[in-house]
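Practice problem. Given the sequence and the SMILES for LJ64HWYM, write out the predicted structure.
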Amino acid sequence: MKKLKLKVPASTANLGVGFDSIGMALDKYLEVEAHLSEDKQWHFEHIGPHLQGLPNDEQHYITKIAQTATAKFSKSMPALNLKMYSDIPLARGLGSSASALVTGLFLANYFANLKLSKYELLQLATEIEGHPDNVAPTIYGGLVLGVYDPDVKQTDVSYIDIPKVDVIATIPEYELSTEKARKVLPETLTLKDSVKYSAISNTMISALIQHNYELAGKMMMKDGFHEPYRQHLIPDFENIKELALQYGAYATVISGAGPTVLTLIKKELSGKLVRELQNRFQDCESELVTINRYGVSQKIINL
Ligand SMILES: Nc1ncnc2c1ncn2[C@@H]1O[C@H](COP(=O)(O)OP(=O)(O)O)[C@@H](O)[C@H]1O
Ligand SMILES: N[C@@H](CCOP(=O)(O)O)C(=O)O
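Answer key:
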């Protein structure tokens, strides 16, 4: 019997101005061990606090994704026995659903023998998710920029060096589903505003490439695509940002759809700030997170 082990990273999307387009993989993981189920039924064992309450049968999101992927190639997905552990809190803006989606696709790829490359898996992942900002870094690692064109179902991605900064995630104890946080966004933007915010986004990326973190940070905090509409859903956001900027942060932005708040800061200053954030915002968990460079990893074990 063969067992597949997956280690699937979390991600932080948007980085302020890169709505639905920019994301970075983080060293927090969904870890999965899977083998064929003897009784041909799906079984899930969820370990740790974050996965409690998820279904333990074929209603599971991961099962549905695996079945969707295999059906697309006219194959059938065998039932699996899965053991999962995660340190990615759900519905906090750290890409837990993208990690689950990528898990489902990698399981389908291996157990239904689809033989898809990472590039092809990314195409599939983005087609399901609708935007590549979480799934692309989750699959490839690092900082990824991407665009999905639904008319031709094509995703193109590009990479830049990971920023040489420390990253602090301030994670509230309450959940905010991406679905809810997308409902507060406007349907349209004027041409004038679209030009302004894409110019800000372009400048942010160029500054990141040049390791000019002061300018990149300044641009990140000028977002007009999503942050102004979502801030009211995260009552501590402005106070966290004010404190971080007092402590010398380059930028503080909403991570993904929130409610996690992400701060980029010089390595020399991050320790002091993370302790102060923990002290001042005791209902949140503030932690230093490192950037994951390699994306999802998989190992096959012969039992
Ligand atoms: N490991 C997982 N297995 C199954 N479903 C998951 C898993 N992780 C996340 N999900 C689903 O995704 C939802 C959270 O997705 P979402 O609102 O997009 O937030 P985020 O992706 O920012 O954590 C969860 O409530 C759950 O339904
Ligand atoms: N671009 C999306 C990203 C959602 O990320 P998540 O981690 O909150 O699922 C959005 O901002 O809606």
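Check your answer against the key. The first strand starts at residue 2 and ends at 13.
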